[in-house]
Write a structure and sequence with these properties.
The chain has about 280 residues and is an alpha/beta fold. Helix content is about 50%, strand content about 15%. It has 12 helices and 5 strands. The longest helix has 25 residues, at about 210-235. It is globular and about 60 Å long.
Length: about 280
């Protein structure tokens, strides 16, 4: 269990797909123009079967296409929430580039030094950020900086450090006793996977639907945040009244996003997620 709730908490989630460039380089497909055909070859090499046509690939050969985070900032006795997503503009090729997404996110972490929260993030999300950061030739010195002694600063690479809370490692067990984020969330009255799941992300990217990937990514970040909030309440970091107040902050943030986002930026996924939260809460 984590020992504290820091003044800055970022509950984050990343979405990735098989990287066609990596596939061309690794499988001798330099002359293959079709990204989908390259991905099919990568899945085949990764052990695809009729029952499991899209196997989980090594993160090094995948490309990050989106990162979302719920950002909680506490000041005194108050706290504020924001939902941040990359790319900010899905129609800007520079912002949508993997290098820009990774560098922007890791530089922001290095600058603000938040307590990171994820689900399976120690084995997956954080590792792909490192691997693909190296692949893209970016620099994230402040994120990587480690103190000489554990009590002298934030260390995202120290095993068991509260600087990075992986909910799966805190709450999971062995084998089938470990719940998925979807299972843990839904039975706790929190929305999990809805219309989209991780295996659809590659198809959405191939179809040019990056906006739908970002929307899905945002709901995953919201789910991760609410699960963390429930775990923090379980651990005694919030009183019952404070826990209710923290949930109200999430509802208020969603309402504000629905009201203030520009018309070209859909908020249908936020409405649907909030409605599902209300439905599941009533079932408890």
């Amino acid at each position: 269990m984590f020992k504290q709730v820091a003044n800055k908490v970022w509950a984050f989630d990343a979405e990735w797909i098989p990287d066609p460039t990596a596939g061309r380089m690794l499988h001798g497909l330099a002359d293959e123009p079709d990204d989908h055909a390259v991905m099919e070859r990568m899945w085949e090499a990764g052990g695809a079967t009729e029952d499991a046509p899209l196997p989980y690939l090594k993160t090094m050969v995948c490309r990050i296409v989106s990162i979302s985070a719920v950002v909680r900032t506490a000041r005194g006795g108050d706290a504020s929430l924001n939902l941040l997503s990359l790319p900010r503009d899905v129609n800007d090729p520079e912002q949508a580039s993997e290098a820009h997404i990774i560098q922007t996110f890791l530089q922001a972490i290095g600058e603000h030094k938040p307590q990171l929260v994820g689900y399976n993030s120690n084995s997956a999300d954080l590792k792909i950020l490192l691997q693909r950061g190296v692949r893209n030739g970016i620099q994230a010195a402040e994120f990587c900086r480690r103190p000489d002694k554990p009590w002298e600063g934030i260390d995202y690479f120290a095993r068991g450090s509260d600087a990075h809370v992986d909910i799966k490692e805190v709450i999971g067990g062995w084998g089938k006793s470990t719940p998925s984020l979807h299972e843990l969330a839904v039975v706790s009255g929190i929305p999990g996977k809805m219309e989209t799941d991780g295996q659809q992300v590659a198809a959405l990217w191939l179809n040019g639907d990056l906006d739908r990937i970002v929307a899905y990514n945002e709901t995953d970040a919201l789910t991760t945040y609410l699960v963390w909030l429930r775990l923090a309440f379980f651990a005694g970091h919030f009183t019952p009244d404070e826990y209710l107040q923290e949930q109200d902050r999430v509802r208020a943030m969603i309402d504000q996003l629905i009201e203030t986002r520009p018309p070209e930026q859909s908020t249908d996924h936020l409405r649907a997620w909030a409605d599902e939260w209300q439905r599941l809460t009533a079932m408890l």
